[in-house]
Amino acid sequence: MKPKILVTREVFDETLAYLNDHCDVESNQTDKPFDAATLAQRLKDKDGVVCCLTDRIDPAVLAAAQRLKVVANIAVGYNNIDVPACTARGVMVTNTPGVLDDSTADLAFTLMLAAARRLTEAEAYIRAGQWQGWHLKQLLGVDVHHATLGIIGMGRIGQQIARRAGGFKMRVLYQNRNRWPADVEKWLNAEYVTKEQLLAQSDFVVLQIPYSPATHHYIGAAELKQMKPTAILINSTRGGVIDDAALIDALKNGTIRAAGLDVFENEPQLNPDFLELKNVVLAPHVGSSTEATRRAMAMTAANNAVAALTGSTPPNLLNTEAKNKA
């Protein structure tokens, strides 16, 4: 008898075909997000779940899912999952690292370039029929090339951002939980500094740290005041690592020049004050959103789930203790 699995959001046909080869699949191809009660109900008879960052897997959901053996998240970040609660119940948790590094790094640079060159302002200017012709001081931006880039979080994605910065001949500073060895720093052409030094010296600050209680509002009013008034802040990691209200004040008051944001606190209910600002580029959490990358993410999650449900160790297991309990 095949194990039963729930796929909580729409996925690609090849992902469903692969899962159907190994499991009895219930899929939500309508893509309407489940509320907590519905998710708990759907998981009552399931052995596994392939879920997304929009699905909260918490103790209440786990209490209803007594048969659950694996939670396969289609994302690198997993702050939507209570991993300790899963571990306590012997539920394996997996993510999808590696396959989205380049696409997410590309998006971080897209936000950086768009904010520096005021691209959303320029497009709105044209669409509103206001462009009357060229003039010397029209929509003056700032250069990205030869500027100083500060990367907070030098993991896989942070490293790919640093490598891209080399093409723009940028000076790269970084802050990380642990300093990388000298050979890695040389490969990245990056200099390890304190958080305070990075904020004070960088023309662009890019955040690539996971969200957790420890990183909640990692950038708030105090940190924004440490940045250059000409600096641009980029968040392409998770909402909540920036105090959005403090950032809005900083953008209104000229504390920093601009921002580029792919993620927000309480998304998709972002602070409406962002919409009134011209000096912020806004994107709807699309950092990994290329067809090739999203297909790879979905298939990676499916591979993780099938491995867990067929007695193998999932390639991207986050809590090895849970497998030992299973």
List the topology elements.
Elements: E1 4-7, H1 13-22, E2 24-27, H2 36-42, E3 48-51, H3 59-64, E4 70-73, H4 83-88, E5 92-94, H5 101-116, H6 119-127, E6 148-152, H7 156-167, E7 171-175, H8 182-188, E8 190-192, H9 195-201, E9 204-207, H10 221-226, E10 232-235, H11 244-253, E11 258-261, E12 280-282, H12 291-309, H13 320-325
Helix pairs in contact: 1-12, 5-7
What does this molecule look like?
The chain is of the alpha/beta class. It folds into two domains: 4-98 and 291-325, Rossmann fold (3-Layer(aba) Sandwich), CATH 3.40.50.720; 101-282, Rossmann fold (3-Layer(aba) Sandwich). It is built from 13 helices and twelve strands. It has a seven-stranded parallel sheet, sandwiched between helices. A five-stranded parallel sheet has the order 2-1-3-4-5. Helix 3 links the parallel strand 3 (48-51) and strand 4 (70-73). Helix 5 (101-116) crosses helix 7 (156-167). The longest helix has 19 residues, at 291-309. It is globular and about 70 Å long. The two termini are 19 Å apart.
Number of helices: 13
Write the H/E string, N to C: EHEHEHEHEHHEHEHEHEHEHEEHH
Low-pLDDT residue spans: none
Report on the biggest sheet: 7 strands, parallel
| Overall pLDDT | 97
Distance between the termini: 19 Å
CATH architecture of the largest domain: 3-Layer(aba) Sandwich
Helix content: 25-40%
CATH-level-4 superfamily name of the largest domain: NAD(P)-binding Rossmann-like Domain
